[in-house]
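Hi,

Apologies if this is the wrong queue. I'm a grad student, and the batch job for ATP synthase protein 8 from Peltigera membranacea produced an output file that my downstream script rejects. I'm not sure whether the problem is my script or the file. Here is the sequence I used:
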Amino acid sequence: MPQLVPFYYTDQVTFTFILLTVMVYVFSKYILPRFVRLFLTRLFISKL
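Support response: The file is valid. Your script probably expects a header line. Output copied below for reference.
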């Protein structure tokens, strides 16, 4: 069904955009602060 080919690509693009947005949000909200906190505690412990 060649009529559906543009919609297939549109669907892929929107799904990828939504997935990237969710990943960026999750990384910035939950994962990256843990790494920063871990690095800061290591730095603080090494300075003692």
